[in-house]
Amino acid sequence: MMENTILVTGGAGFIGSHTCIALHEAGFRPVVLDNFSNASVRVLDQLERITGQRFPLVRGDIRDADLLRDTFQRYRIDAVFHFAALKAVGESVRQPLAYYENNVSGSLALLQVMQQCGVRRMVFSSSATVYGEPQYVPIDEAHPIGSTNPYGWSKVMVEQLLRDVASADSDFLALALRYFNPVGAHESGLLGEDPLGTPNNLVPFIAQTAIGRREHVQVFGSDYQTTDGTGVRDYIHVMDLAEGHVAAFRTHCGDFGFKPYNLGTGRGSSVLEVITAFEKSCGAHIPWEAAPRRPGDVAVNWADPALAVKRLNWRARRDLQTMTDDVWRWQSAYPNGLQEHTS
Ligand code: NAD
Ligand code: UFG
Fold first, then answer.
1. What is the pLDDT of residues 266-293, one digit of tens each?
2. Which of 47, 144, 175, 288 is the most exposed place for a label (fewest CB within 10 A)?
3. Is residue 151 annotated as part of the catalytic site, yes or no?
4. Nearest listed ligand to the Cα of residue 194
5. Which ligand is nearest to the CA of 110?
């Protein structure tokens, strides 16, 4: 088990790249497959600086069945950690077909080649978005499934594909890891979230404001029924998330079936609490202004991670201050991310 070779689709992206580090540290061999639609090839250099290992890279698309077949055979892949997807909720509303094509057809193509090549273990990047509008918090895995946008539906659909494949093939293992709000960066400051264009998510937006690339943060909604009126989310450090993948795979690699797990901390933080933590990290005031609620947002959303804690022998260890400290170390070392950094 310790020498397993893992194909990491989307392995140059934010969560995939950090998971490659956790896999390496746990004794696995990651092989990165990425089409670089939302990542820099320089991520591989940073991974080498952190781990001392040059991970094999397959440049290409999960929808390219010939490339996948060749990759499975060449590297003798034992399991797939499947991160590759488009992930912008708003964009998915405007371009639903692009999301279904990339996320659903892409996963289908990958599963077909896995079946042809006899690879029967997948760890899938799912999301708390599969719970749709929260009907209660904290959200456990028994919460009803649904969605409010094409991105979310693409995750629901891939989960359904995995359920069906696992019920048709009694040797197939599908772990659907439902992430809450992944943030943070590697503690070295060498790797972190590197969004192209204007960030959609809170923490990258705050980080770019702190470094001077944005004028101020807009706080979407200050009249929610929460302690300070701003939205509350379950922010989880990307390295805790990465280690959660390894824990899930180690626990279940000899099992079969479809197994969903929430990966979150079980604690909620408000937008203003995140801004305050970031101010402490960077030692400066972060300008912000109250703005109307963002359409589609809910007041509160956080995980009940009890199932993962109980079964996977894992829990999120890093607190909000560590998350913002690590983001600031990364953002201040690479103000423009990896794409434009020249030293
Ligand atoms: P990311 O965009 O940084 O990483 C995704 C990677 O996949 C990118 O490197 C991109 O170039 C690559 N990719 C996309 N389509 C591809 C394709 N067809 N073939 C090959 N490579 C392709 O995103 P992330 O934040 O690291 O997210 C990873 C996964 O986690 C995604 O499936 C996402 O939906 C899921 N997720 C993310 C969050 C979040 O807030 N970041 C929350 C819940 C779930
Ligand atoms: N927010 C701001 N200003 C910003 C950006 C966000 O105030 O510039 C607020 C939002 O209103 C929300 C909180 O910060 O209250 C977090 O927003 P994010 O956009 O960072 O994260 P979301 O909870 O909206 O989205 C996350 C994932 C999605 C996933 C969704 C539902 O990023 O992929 O959870 O699970 F679909």
1. 999 999 999 999 999 999 999 999 999 9
2. 144
3. yes
4. 1
5. 1
